Amino acid sequence: MLFDTHVNLHAEAFADDLTDVIRRAREAGVERMISICDKLDSFSRIREIVEADERMWCSVGVHPHYAKDYGSLTVDAILERAAWERVCGIGETGLDQHYGYSDLAAQIECFETHVAAAQQTGLPLIVHTREADTETGDVLERGYGAAPFPILMHCYTSGETLARRAIDLDAYFSVSGILSFKTAESVREVISIVPRDRILLETDCPYLAPVPMRGRRNEPAYLVHVCTALAQLWDVDEAEVARITTENALRLFKRVS
Ligand SMILES: [Zn+2]
To answer: Is the peptide bond before 124 cis (omega within 30 degrees of 0)?
Structure first.
């Protein structure tokens, strides 16, 4: 059994054939999925998708890209939605200076609101970080020092220093199709230092289709190729990767059964 810990099924790219996409995922052995929330305005649509499928869970949060639109975001607004038992994580949240859609101060404030929600619920914080290694490490350490909470560094492509800081906070890391890209040698090197009992798989679909599907719309069925990329990195077979990463995901996402 495979567990896709990061799918964006409410994306426009799936508007026409979501049922087929989910069927193909199941045929490929992807039996659990977490539908990720990018902004509170998307939550009711995500909830609809999750309610229609008993092997689907979701998160609640605001992506750093949208931090500027949620300047008045409160912890309560997140907690209210996280009360639903199929919400298994807080986010995705974090810092992104690559696109810089929202200024850094707004992103940090939004990120810290999510940290507080993770502290209060005990649900894992799903962290997106890009070109903000130092600031991301600082927010996580500050929050964790005040009251520990579970952390997932999703689609991790950042540096080794931040990876080590996060490992010290007992964080989990998820790998995506990027792991299969020829040019991603530095990502493979960093992922190699993460303990194997801390690694999960994700597609981040419809983005980041793995080799040999690169350039196409990504979908959860392609998680098998992410699994293959990790099997090559670890030099074990795919079944072993599926077993370890699914076990890890179920340990982290306690509301998923
Ligand atoms: Zn992300």
So the answer is: no
**Ligand 1 centroid, distance to 35 Cα (angstroms):** 12
The C-alpha atoms of residue 60 and residue 43 are separated, in whole angstroms, by: 7
Q: How remote is the CA of residue 6 from the centroid of ligand 1, in Å? A: 9
Residue pLDDT, tens place only, 194-246 = 999 999 999 999 999 999 999 999 999 999 999 999 999 999 999 999 999 99
pLDDT tens readout for residues 159-179:
999 999 999 999 999 999 999
CA angle 186, 188, 191 (to 5 degrees): 110
Residue whose tokens read 């970080």: 129
Residue 257 inside a domain? The answer is no
> How far does the centroid of ligand 1 lie from the alpha carbon of residue 128, in Å?
5
| Distance of alpha carbon 211 from alpha carbon 183, whole angstroms | 12
Boundaries of domain holding 8: 2-252
At 251, the amino acid letter reads R
* Ligand 1 geometric centre to CA of 232 (Å): 24
The CATH number of residue 170's host domain is 3.20.20.140
Phi, then psi, of 245 in degrees rounded to 5: -70, -35
Indicate the number of domains in the chain: 1
* Backbone dihedral region for residue 113 (phi beyond 0: left; psi -120 to 50: alpha; all else: beta): alpha
Cα(64) to centroid(ligand 1), Å:
9
Neighbours of ion ligand 1 (CB under 5 A): 128
Asked if residue 141 lies in contact with residue 167, where contact means CB atoms within 8 angstroms, the answer is no
Q: Residue 25 corresponds to which tokens in the numbers above?
A: 């995922």
CA separation for the pair 126, 111 (Å, rounded): 10
